[in-house]
Design a protein that fits this description.
The chain is α+β, with helices and mostly antiparallel strands. The protein contains ten helices and 26 strands. α8 runs antiparallel to α9.
Length: about 500
């Protein structure tokens, strides 16, 4: 019995000594907000520990299991973390990456960590002074809030910085208010000082923007420095802010597409939109939507779809080292059938990718074309955005069709004896443009370096398609004798010039 008691006593002493001597690691950050704020301020937190509350867990992401915490923190692992919503855990960040305003963090769980005197906690009190700094918008903009209440604003498509003394900001009652070009926009500020500014109505193409803080810096920047900040922040992540509530409907060929507000209408005469255009960096992101008359069934379209798509890709990617990276494939869009293909080309040291979509609309005897062109210098990639635009196709409303028909009737009733002035004006401008087009294409086909001509080439192709569509819309059977004669005279001359240019 004495031996047993001695053994037990010895065991208790060993356990107590072990417990007393065990070292406890002090947690670096006591909550997710403090950790996220440090990340947003540009600090390197790899190797640091943080105590978080599991807001939710997603077991089926690309990275595996994803623990959500804070505003934009994603703790990912390939194995089940063995936690549930509401749990408080301590983790050590091993690798940290930024992706479209969120932080992707690989980690390891820490079991023996405690809060200490050096543990950093968030300051829940946000003041106007703490709001001062540089913010990045998820649509590709930068907003600087200065101590004196003035602002500087840059949007990625511009070569100018908006720094008007009348553009001011203020903060109070958790609301940030920004006066931008005479219009007041505002939004609620979150604990991590992120906010979404919304306008009551669209002005100057501005609808809303979600901002998050990247630093306390308020120094003046050049356009190049602003663009580099955007590159460093987004690293050509997918632009994926498509929201039907703030899209603008555009109709063509008897159908309607929803276009996000950050794709600006170029007012070129056809449906052409840009999200990024910055010539100094050969930065282009552009969408063109057009049609041509073609009476074809869906069955016939499916049989010839690959040929149609390849022809368009070859026209667009006619550069050095051009190649088709995605062979044309049939797609189904609501009640429509289409085809999509992707090609790349390299010209003058930069690369661009083009995505071509052709959609058959037998109800209107037209084929609709959509073209996305983006160079490798853009701040974002637009594949996901373009796909959603394509999938938004719907039949044009009956009221829109009725309006179009009434306009055609009115135009016909205005015809007089002799050649209709409106028709003559159009045909004369049509022939004048075709002369310019033929001259340009001869120059383009013989040029050794076409890189500098690319944008002009696209502009000519767009205008060509627009003029051709309008010319083909005329029906000589419904014209007066004078109108029909002049129409045939001009179109015949144009056709002859095009044939000569082709030969």
């Amino acid at each position: 019995m004495k031996i047993q008691k001695s053994s037990i006593l010895l065991l208790m002493i060993v356990v107590l000594l072990t417990a007393c001597g065990a070292s406890k690691e002090v947690i670096d950050y006591g909550d997710a907000t403090a950790f996220e704020t440090a990340l947003n301020n540009g600090e390197n937190l790899e190797g640091k520990t943080v105590q978080i509350i599991v807001d939710d867990i997603n077991p089926a992401t690309v990275s595996g299991y994803d623990i959500y915490a804070g505003k934009h923190l994603n703790f990912v692992s390939s194995r089940h973390p063995d936690v549930k919503k509401g749990d408080t855990i301590v983790v050590r960040a091993t690798t940290i990456e930024s992706a479209l305003g969120s932080w992707i963090i690989q980690y390891e769980k820490v079991e023996n960590a405690v809060v200490g005197d050096t543990t950093v906690f968030s300051d829940s009190t946000i003041t106007a002074d703490s709001m001062v700094g540089t913010y990045v918008g998820k649509n590709g903009s930068v907003l600087i809030l200065r101590e004196d209440g003035t602002t500087a604003y840059y949007y990625m498509k511009s070569d100018e910085i908006e720094e008007d003394s009348d553009n001011t900001w203020s903060y109070g009652d958790e609301i940030l208010t920004w006066v931008y070009n005479g219009t007041e926009v505002s939004g609620t500020v979150a604990d991590d000082m992120s906010f979404t500014l919304k306008a009551q109505k669209e002005f100057d193409g501005w609808v809303r923007e979600a901002f998050f803080k990247v630093s306390d810096d308020t120094m003046d920047k050049t356009v190049s420095e602003y663009r580099q900040l955007l590159r460093d922040t987004f690293n050509r992540a997918e632009m994926d802010n498509f929201d039907p509530e703030v899209c603008v409907p555009y109709s063509i060929g008897g159908v309607t597409f929803q276009i996000p507000f950050y794709w600006w209408d170029t007012q070129s005469g056809s449906l052409q939109f840009t999200s990024e255009v910055y010539g100094a960096e050969k930065c282009v992101a552009q969408i063109t939507i057009d049609t041509y008359s073609e009476q074809i069934t869906n069955e016939e379209f499916a049989l010839g779809a690959e040929k149609i798509c390849n022809s368009m890709l070859n026209q667009v990617t006619d550069g050095e080292a051009s190649s088709i990276v995605k062979k044309p494939t049939i797609i189904h869009l609501n009640e429509y059938i289409g085809v999509i293909g992707v090609g790349t080309a390299k010209e003058d040291g930069y690369s661009f990718i083009s995505t071509v979509v052709a959609i058959n609309n037998p109800n209107a005897d037209e084929v609709i074309f959509l073209l996305l062109i983006e160079t490798d210098q853009t701040i974002f990639k637009y594949d996901a955005d373009f796909e959603k635009i394509i999938n938004s196709i719907t039949p044009q409303s009956a009221s829109e069709n009725m309006t179009s028909e009434s306009q055609e009737t009115e135009e016909k009733s205005n015809k007089a004896n002799g050649v209709t002035p409106e028709l003559k004006e159009f045909l004369d401008s049509y022939e004048e443009f075709m002369d310019e087009y033929v001259a340009f294409m001869k120059k383009y086909q013989t040029a050794t370096d076409t890189s500098s001509m690319l944008m002009d080439y696209l502009a000519f192709m767009q205008k060509y398609s627009d003029f051709s569509e309008k010319a083909n819309a005329y029906d000589t059977n419904e014209m007066s004798t004078a109108d029909a004669a002049y129409y045939l005279e001009v179109t015949s001359r144009v056709s002859q010039k095009l044939l000569q240019a082709a030969s």
